[in-house]
Amino acid sequence: MKYLEDLIKEQGEIWPGGIVKVDSFLNHQIDWKLYQEMGKEFYRLFKDDGINKIMTVEASGIGIACVAAQYFKVPMVFAKKYKTSNIDSDLYSAKVHSFTHGNDYNMVVSRKYVNKSDRILLIDDFLANGQALLGLKSIIEQAGATLCGCGIAIEKGFQPGGKLLRDQGIRVESLAIIKSVTDDTIEF
Ligand code: 5GP
């Protein structure tokens, strides 16, 4: 998506460890027009897949997933990051390694909000090593629901997540794919 790529080129910053900071339009201050365009594009890509629920993980996926949900006219459910290891029996949970924080956490979703009749589109802001999406996939499998695909704003193509998921037969649609970064350049 050209508008997203232009914003990344103009305003994105490269931080050590291959972290792309896009706080001025995606992760802190939000460009409403970008969010609207992304929601519309995810709808165009997945409108024929019978999606009846959108899922993401807190926090930065929530805004994008919520805007996308308006186009699909379906509920959006976000997994919560759970601080303790004692998981209630009324929750589905998955252990995930956080790329940005370097630690493990449990993501949880109430059993009330995902069930086997659900056809789910996963949405997230970034795809790096794919661990967040694999955690959500595990929750979908525990519930017996169907994963229809993943809609990603920015995929970092120089990290293995995209290949890992696509090799499992999962449809992954990324609106911008960054091929490589150096200290001061970003290539698509
Ligand atoms: P993964 O699980 O694919 O390794 O990482 C995806 C998650 O880590 C996303 O939910 C996103 O919030 C965060 N993330 C990964 N890479 C970046 C990055 O370069 N910049 C930002 N802002 N977040 C990232």
Task: Write structural notes for this entry.
- By secondary structure, the chain is α/β, with parallel strands linked by helices.
- 33% of the residues lie in helices and 34% in strands.
- It is built from 6 helices and 11 strands.
- A 7-stranded mixed β-sheet has the order 5-6-4-3-7-8-9, sandwiched between helices. Strands 1-2 form a two-stranded antiparallel ribbon.
- A hairpin with a 3-residue loop joins strand 1 and strand 2 (19-21).
- Helix 3 (32-46) packs across helix 4 (61-72).
- The longest helix is centred in the N-terminal third of the chain and has 15 residues, at 32-46.
- The protein is globular and about 45 Å long.
- The protein starts with a helix and ends with a strand.
- Guanosine-5'-monophosphate is lined by residues 19-21, 27, 60-61, 99-100, 124-132, 156, 161.
